[in-house]
Amino acid sequence: MSKLALLGGQPVRTTPFPAYVTAGAEEKEAAALVIDSGVLSRYLGCWHEQFYGGTEVQALEQEWAAYYGVKHAIAVNSCTSGLICALGAIGLSPGDEVIVTPWSMSISATGPLFYGGIPVFADLEPDYFCLSPASVEERISPRTKAIVVVDIFGQPYDAEAINAIARKHGIPVIEDCAQAPGVRLNGRYAGTLGDVGVFSLNYHKHIHCGEGGVIVTDSDSLAERLQLIRNHAEAVVAGKGTPDLTNMLGYNFRMTELDAALTRCQLKKLAPLLEIRQRNVAYLENGLKEIPCLTIPAVRLGAEHAYYVHACRYDAEEAGITSRRFVEAVKAELPTFHLREKEGTKLGAGYVQPLYLLPMFQQRIAIGNQGWPFTLTSRTYARGLCPVCEDLYEHSVITHEFMLPSMDKSDMDDVVKAFHKVWENRDELR
Asked: Which GO terms describe its biological process (predicted)?
């Protein structure tokens, strides 16, 4: 009988890994206080003292701004909402181009479409997986309005190089920091490296309130526009006396008092949770370093890494089997996480498919059924557009979440055993 669980052998472990739960007594107390107050939200969609939301929302914004050392923090109901706000606030118009990444959650690339903007995909750095400055520069055109960078997997983007490109062309940088809260690049927090930064409080992020987000900026004018787009700008601008009506068609992107109260508690836990995550990564990497087909993630000079996921380079030639076959075998040796059972074992090959291969881009259908706004551009989205990203997705990256702070050394030992077991018995998979 085969030794590998995938082929009928006994798995390394069947007991689920412990759930990653960050909420506790503090959050329960904070939620109870909000409920007892009778005020679950305090926004009015008109120019009024309650336009800015309630006590908890405003307290969170002040605390978040102080933590990250920025002038303004604007709470929203998701990072997705925050990115849409940011793209509207910079004045994006139909036909404008925005440089985006092909490797992230979809909104990092599709956000420009909400304003008729055209996503232009730049390729990735092969070692750090963030946008390649050289590829960004190559994709710039007279129609480029902004660059949306992503601190992918918890790695801050190359701020020095990309910000220099942005300054050269007079365009802003919007930083999607959903995966890298609380880490720094050369002493500055990720999320504050560009003109606007957007954080996520979704349930599987480092800290969370279920669903939520926070936008940060040092620009007074951008902050005002972000607040307006968040809360029914079209109904507010007259009373507020806002002269520039560009993209002042607002949304309801408002955060509730409950979410804000929970996030205030969570923010206090961010630093210790990051420390545990980083310590766990070091322990795992020590156990995996002798597997020749794996290369541990590189960390940019001067950067800290938040390790939203642990992304290892994979050498298929060294292993003699594809990354997907290797991952399939390791997954069979390991269980799911408690409370996330339906998501399967948190290990994958390739992360997400390059976003320009989504049906939206391949069929050029987004707003309505006539191809708008793709009718405004000659840009194409054929396979081969970002060869580094495609190679990473198809062949050479493995990601996992076995460094979550809920994992102890015995849990991680099982992970290391599973990887070594598959490596040592890989001939069975050929």
From this structure: polysaccharide biosynthetic process
Q: Return the pLDDT at 2.
A: 77
Q: Region 289-295: what's the mean pLDDT? A: 97
* Whole-number Cα distances in Å, 267 to 91, 113, 193, 194, 212: 31, 32, 19, 21, 13
Detail the DSSP E strand segments found in 219-371: 294-295, 310-314, 347-349
Give yes or no for a contact between 17 and 338, defined as CB atoms under 8 angstroms apart: yes
Cα separation, 390 vs 102, in Å, equals: 9
CB-based contacts of 181, cutoff 8 Å, min separation 6: 190, 191, 199, 205, 206, 207, 270, 274, 306
Assess whether 205 carries a catalytic annotation: yes
Q: Which domains does the chain have, with CATH numbers?
A: 25-268 (3.40.640.10), 271-353+386-429 (3.90.1150.10)
For 417, the token pair is 């055993």
397 phi, psi to nearest 5 deg = -135, 140
Rounded Cα–Cα distance for residues 415 and 344 (Å): 15
Q: Which residue in 205, 331, 346, 421 is the catalytic one?
A: 205
pTM score of the predicted model: 0.98
Q: What percent of the chain has pLDDT over 70?
A: 100
